[in-house]
Amino acid sequence: SRRAVHVLNSAYQNAANVVARHPLAPLFMHPDDIAAESLKPGENVEITSSAGRVVGQLKEDPAMMRGVVSMPHSWGSADPDDGDTCLTSALVSLDEAIEAINFMPRQSGIPVNINRMRPQ
Question: 106 with 92: CB under 8 angstroms?
């Protein structure tokens, strides 16, 4: 999870100055990881987990640990038919990696793959 400039949790994500800066939720990666995947900062990517798929726009962050990505939560549509949502909860499984004692799903440290967005 991560905070984004000009946004307070999920509020203001549709404000004109935020949309101009972040047409999709930003996905932060270490610059070396971006280069290793033959991707480019500013490029739109899809983020997939075993539970689902979301989209984001790549942003460099040299302070990030290699192999880790970070993205703000609560951006995008909760409509399951919206194929281009940024809503990170779509990456969370309600069936896998559930805590035995309280049935809480894994909400961070989710294994994901990052790929160039496929044409629609």
Answer: yes
- Spatial contact of 67 and 29, defined as CB atoms under 8 Å apart: no
Q: Which of 63, 31, 25, 62 is nearest to 44 (CA)?
A: 25
Give the distance from CA 117 to its chain's centroid: 13
Sign of the four-CA dihedral 52, 56, 59, 63: negative
Q: Which residues have CB under 8 Å from 78's CB, separation 6+?
A: 85, 87, 89
One-letter amino acid at 97 equals A
Tell me if 18 sits within 8 A of 7, measured CB to CB.
Answer: yes
pLDDT, one tens digit per residue, over 43-101 is: 999 999 998 889 999 999 999 999 999 988 777 777 767 777 888 888 888 888 888 88
- For 34, 47, 54, 113, the CA distances from 50, given in Å and listed in that order, are 22, 10, 12, 9
